[in-house]
Design brief:
Oligomer: single chain
Radius of gyration: 22 Å
Order of helices and strands: HHHHHHHHHHHHHHHHHHHHHHH
Largest sheet: none
Distance between the termini: 25 Å
Shape: globular
Strand content: under 5%
């Protein structure tokens, strides 16, 4: 354990540690175009330096980092499994079949709602960036051919892609939130599923109304582009309902509450079998795909872009960010720098609705100050964890409340890494697509309204002694033994 700090840890110390990280992150990510890893290393050094100035020993700082990283180890295994699953599911025809059936129903008037819904479905498997960088690119090409405004089309793609950041157990955002909230990723994804689906329905309705009022006509170019993509998918893969069996098995595992890692491994094994039996791949090729991902070489450029994805190696950059973020959070938590910021804020909150509102606002603010999704999720979760537990709020509930903002507002901030990625792959500015990415700001508002008006009726608040971890020490100082993903 750390020695007692020689100096009192005050609000300004925690704000200084966070503020300097924000400055370094902004300068490196926005100014230099760097990835978040090095700014996070610098942030760890800054937080550790401040802690040592206050009287903590190096051993205490190191202990905080190690505990934070330890809490991320199961997340690392999950992310590796997700990379394997995506690559194998592409090779087995599961993902191509989902894309194929989605493109079969494209029409000018239905283009926006279909783009939103199909991107959402693909995102559940490939994640927000994977969906936007694959099927999203295809939809943008089709939109150009149909004379549909690209800002609208990109907004529908982005909104659909980021639904996965709320409801998909295959995506790193929910897995990170579940890890820090100390709950099963399946429980976290299911808890607010109804609210998420209601919001998706509202978004689809808005896109439908927009599409019905668009003055566009089906062009031969647009139709031929869709047809060419369908033909290429049909030629490259054995398309059919049987290839969706791995997806069905995954859904069954969710319903039966099978822990995340075994569920992924079962779905990967079935996908490998289908890749060999249905797609003609040899076992050595499938094993290689699970490691490095698929490198599509059909000769059809948009299809090859669509399906070159997956593999453990594809996830290593994400894993490094998660480990560094958890190391930084471990220092902040273990040396009380986090508590020094949180206590003055929560002491002024008078109701559960105010706590929900502040949490959602903080998540969006962190995405502005720290231009990357992972620090926003981590810090928002760690800041308000103890207050939610004091009120008897179940872990999967407050984990969702945090993720409802920190997990999806990042793509609305032009200098955030998520928005930079979307602009790069879609070729549409953040200012152009943000007004049409309805889900990314409607869903946080739905959570705030639900928390303020219906928190008790929805069962979000309970007696503190009824919550398993209500009075427990923070996750970084507690047990890691739990069922589910984390």
């Amino acid at each position: 354990m750390q020695e007692k700090a020689m100096k009192e840890v005050k609000f300004r110390h925690g704000v200084l540690a966070l503020g300097l990280l924000a400055v370094v992150m902004f300068a490196c990510v926005v100014g230099l175009g760097a990835e978040p890893q090095i700014p996070l290393v610098i942030g760890c050094a800054i937080a550790g330096g401040i802690a040592m100035y206050l009287g903590y020993t190096w051993d205490a700082v190191l202990e905080g980092m190690v505990k934070g990283i330890t809490d991320s180890l199961e997340a690392v295994l999950i992310l590796m499994a997700i990379g394997m699953l995506v690559g194998v599911w592409i090779q087995s025809g599961t993902v191509p079949t989902m894309i194929y059936y989605g493109l079969k129903v494209v029409s000018p008037q239905l283009f926006l709602p279909i783009t939103f819904l199909v991107t959402c479905a693909v995102g559940i498997v490939l994640g927000s960036w994977g969906a936007a960088g694959t099927i999203g690119i295809a939809f943008l090409g089709i939109a150009a051919a149909l004379n549909i405004p690209l800002g609208m089309a990109a907004g529908a793609v982005v909104a659909g892609a980021y639904v996965s950041e709320i409801i998909s157990p295959l995506v790193d955002g929910p897995n990170l939130a579940a890890a820090i909230a100390d709950c099963s990723v399946f429980d976290l994804c299911k808890r607010f599923l109804v609210l998420c689906l209601v919001t998706c329905g509202a978004c689809a309705g808005i896109y439908l109304l927009m599409g019905m009022n668009l003055d566009v006509a089906s062009t031969a170019t647009g139709a031929s582009q869709v047809d060419a993509l369908l033909v290429s998918l049909d030629e490259a893969y054995n398309i059919g309902p049987i290839t969706l069996i791995p997806l069905g098995v995954m859904i069954v595992c969710v319903v039966l509450k099978v822990p995340a890692l075994p569920s992924f491994l079962v779905a990967i094994a079935i996908g490998m079998g289908e890749a060999v039996l249905l797609q003609g791949s040899d076992l050595a090729q499938v094993v290689e795909v699970a490691n490095v991902g698929v490198v599509s070489a059909t000769g059809f450029e948009s299809l090859d872009t669509l399906l070159s994805n997956g593999g453990i190696q594809e996830m290593m950059s994400t894993i490094s960010i998660v480990v560094l973020v958890m190391a930084y959070g471990g220092i902040m938590q273990h040396t009380k720098l986090m508590d020094s910021m949180v206590e003055p804020i929560v002491s002024k909150l008078k109701s559960f609705g105010q706590l929900v509102s502040v949490t959602v606002f903080s998540g969006a603010l962190f995405n502005v100050l720290l231009p990357d999704q992972y620090p926003a999720i981590t810090l928002s979760t760690q800041m308000y964890r103890n207050e939610f537990r004091r009120l008897g709020v179940k872990n999967d509930v407050w984990g969702n409340i945090v993720n409802s903002s920190a997990g999806i507002t990042s793509v609305l901030v032009p200098w955030n890494t998520c928005a930079v990625y979307m602009v790069t792959v879609l070729g549409v500015s953040c200012v152009s697509y943000a007004p049409y990415a309805f889900f990314c700001y409607l869903y946080p508002l739905v959570i705030v309204v639900a928390g303020v008006l219906f928190g008790k009726k929805l069962g979000w608040i309970g007696a503190p002694d009824a919550v398993t971890h209500a009075t427990a020490v923070p996750v970084s100082e507690g047990s890691l033994e739990r069922e589910g993903a984390f």
